[in-house]
Amino acid sequence: MLKIGCHLSSAKGFLAMGKTAASIGADTFQFFTRNPRGTKAKAIREEDVEAFRKFAGENSITPVLAHAPYILNAASADEGLRSLAAETMADDLKRMEYLPGNFYNFHPGCHVGQGTEAGIVWISGMLNKILKPKQHTVMLLETMAGKGSEIGGRFEELREILDRVELSDHVGVCLDTCHVWDGGYDIAGHLDQVVWEFDRVIGLDRLKAIHLNDSQNPLGAKKDRHARIGEGHIGFEALARVVRHPALRQLPFYLETPNELDGYAREIAMMREAWEQ
Question: Which InterPro entries does the UniProt entry name for this protein (predicted)?
Answer without folding.
Answer: AP_endonuc_2, AP_endonuc_F2_Zn_BS, Xyl_isomerase-like_sf, Xyl_isomerase-like_TIM-brl
